[in-house]
Amino acid sequence: MDAPNPLREALEGGRFCYVVELVASRLTREARLLEVASQLARVPGVVAGSITSYAGGAMGHDPIRVGTAARARGLTPNIHLTCVNRDVAAAQRALEDLNALGIENVFALTGDYPKSSAQPPEKPVFDLDSVQLVRMIAAMRERGLPFWIAVAVSPFKYTEADCAYQYLKLEKKFAAGADYAVTQLGYDAHKFRELRSYLDERGIRKPVLGSVYVLGAKAAEKMSKGEPPGCWVAPELLEKIREEAQAPDKGAAARLERAARMVAIVRGLGYAGAYLGGDHQADHIRWIIKRSEAIANRWEEFAEELNYAPQNGFYLYTASKGGAGKRGAIPAILDALGKAFPVNRETALRRALARVFGWVDRHPGAARGLERLEFALKRPLFGCEACGNCVLGHMEYVCPQTCPKHLRNGPCGGTLQGRCEVVDQPCIWVAVYERAVDTARIEDLKTFIPPPDRKLTGTSSWINYFLGRDNRPGSEHPLVTIRGLPSASRTVGPAAAGVESKPAAAPHQAGR
Ligand code: SF4
């Protein structure tokens, strides 16, 4: 019999629940975290502790070790698994470790860009994005590893492209196998409502936890500058919190009251639970829960008051949308060529080209020359990095390698007003979205794009395409094998061919 998982049981049973975030940063002593975990385990309604990894882009304690110790103290862990500096093989190993330890709850995240390596040459590895990671975990689950998968979404985006893409990407995450979502933090009830309406309108019944961050003055100051990436506090809220901080209790009562009201709001809006951050002290959490229950029937009144947003921010159901008109000549020419010379289906032209590229491939000098030619053409046009698995046609002719995190399935949560969290440039997904709007191809953006096969880096994507070697929609190759699992479904996602992991010992599962 499976070990109990209060988080899964609450969400499946439709019981409003609480998950408390434990930031496993280097600044917090591990012993202190575990003391907190044992106290939280005794708070009614708290179903899990969510153990962060790489929070704010800095290396912290190992979340798997902390989560295992937290569970020993009675708190069910939800382990954050990011794509930062973790290739496919490492992600697979981490998941096998979790399974061996009997931990089900995984929070699949792209992760913050490491602070220490924001500049080349120390570029971090982002082998997968969060959608690809979800797909990988779900594939392992199909083979009997019982994971329960959380994903993130931020409704608190105030430009059309940022906002719409967050919701598109959430749909992709659910389609890839995510079980539930957790919102980014924000202080705008209209945005909490917008996300619920988006999901309800599409009949998406997956549970969502609303983020309730207990906001103190120090965190508010940082967030007002957009730090950590994806977190933002409006000037009006910052001002209010500064005033509250003047009180003898330094604003403690006011911030707990705000948190309780936010819990009441998300509950009233139909969220499945609250994801509490910013304060993990058990007596505070207990107070927030009790107080939110006492004031639950006033949630609409509180929602009216919680409206901290930028001037002229974008709202999906009230703003006029579309009409970006920024596609440019090159995408139009490439589309026209694609129509005139169809090679993406079985045609005589495709067969002829496959023979030509097959010949080139058998002659290393010619293959190298073709790769150089392709690079010389695509580098100035698209910023090509010769990944060998070209998906320009699936991304409105925007190269994914120009995203600092190399994401292929949509933006991370770190954008601020359409700008990248890492480098001072517009987020590449703004152009993808605006071009798709221009050609009425928004639905195409929901197509899952697998990770590139890294073995093909530096080879011609044209050859790889015609010989069917690359990894892209319509040509997805299983590249990771899990030994000891049923052969019909042994393969997991992308990259790192030849990786064979050790069979996972499962000591904690033995008696389940
Ligand atoms: S997707 Fe790969 S092959 Fe295509 S332009 Fe970008 S780096 Fe080059």
The secondary-structure class comes to alpha/beta
Ligands, ions, cofactors: iron/sulfur cluster
Helical proportion, percent range: 25-40%
Q: What summary fits the major beta sheet? A: 8 strands, parallel, barrel
Which percent range describes the beta-strand content?
5-15%
Order of helices and strands: HEHEHEHEHEHEHEHHHEHHHHHHHEE
N/C terminus separation: 4 Å
Strand order of the largest sheet: 1-2-3-4-5-6-7-8
Q: Which geometry do the CA atoms define?
A: globular
Radius of gyration: 24 Å
- Unreliable segments (pLDDT under 50, ≥5 consecutive)? 484-512
The average pLDDT value, as a whole number, equals: 89
* Helix count, DSSP H or I runs of 4 or more residues: 17
What does this structure look like?
- This protein has 512 residues and is of the alpha/beta class.
- The longest helix has 19 residues.
- The protein is globular and about 75 Å long.
- The C terminus is likely disordered.
- Bound molecules: iron/sulfur cluster.
- Iron/sulfur cluster binds next to helix 15.
Structure summarized in a few sentences:
By secondary structure, the chain is α/β, with parallel strands linked by helices. Helices cover 39% and strands 9% of the residues.
